[in-house]
């Protein structure tokens, strides 16, 4: 699922803008597929708890988009 989502985001079909940056969480379970690189650790502060996101991307307009496995 994550590899397909990563590939889809790289194609630019999500919006009319391209993605200028796309990072995959550096969790040990996600490091094997090298196609998901680059890797970086990001967390979402949800007030009562903090959750790591699987993918973090930034569109060319500068807005940051996040995808978590629990969505």
What does this structure look like?
There is one protein chain. The protein is α+β, with helices and mostly antiparallel strands. 14% of the residues lie in helices and 30% in strands. The protein contains 1 helix and 5 strands, in the order αβββββ. The chain has one helix at residues 2-11, and strands at 19-24, 43-45, 50-52, 55-59, 64-67. Strands 1-4-5 form a 3-stranded antiparallel β-sheet, with helices on one face. Strands 2-3 form a two-stranded antiparallel sheet. Strand 4 (55-59) and strand 5 form a beta hairpin. The longest helix is centred in the N-terminal third of the chain and has 10 residues, at 2-11. It is globular and about 35 Å long. It starts with a helix and ends with a strand. 11% of the residues are buried. The mean pLDDT is 77.
């Amino acid at each position: 699922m994550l590899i397909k989502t990563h590939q889809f985001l790289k194609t630019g079909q999500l919006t009319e803008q391209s993605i200028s940056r796309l990072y995959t969480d550096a969790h040990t379970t996600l490091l094997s597929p090298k196609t998901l690189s680059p890797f970086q650790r990001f967390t979402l502060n949800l007030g009562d708890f903090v959750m790591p996101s699987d993918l973090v991307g930034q569109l060319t307009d500068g807005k940051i988009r996040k995808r978590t496995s629990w969505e």
